[in-house]
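SAMPLE LOG
Freezer: B-3
Tube label: C17
Construct: single chain, 128 aa
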Amino acid sequence: QVQLVESGGDLVQPGGSLRLSCAASGRSLDYYTIGWFRQAPGKEREGVSSISGRGSGGRTYYADSVKGRFTISRDNAKNTVYLQMNSLKPEDTAVYYCATKVFHGSGKELNPGDFASWGQGTQVTVSS
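STRUCTURE (predicted):
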């Protein structure tokens, strides 16, 4: 069983940057698709980005709301996936989670129901 721990959240001003980390233990992430999600107060959890595993070439996907500002990457040697977030906006404020994709039949890249092994989340607050 894989355990995921997110870190790197902080309070940052609009236009600033943060890098979130999703560190795994218990199992290698090499062949997993990993997704980043976020949930703001009173809103549903939404998909942000995903990166496929070694067997699928590390293909990346981004929600329209973060495309061009966020970059997902993975370091298999460190068993860690990163989310570089630039040009942050107040609407990016949320708790950010990572998870492993365990079901690939929904036809959706970032359906929360397709993911498991959720971490505890890390808070990102964008405010002046």
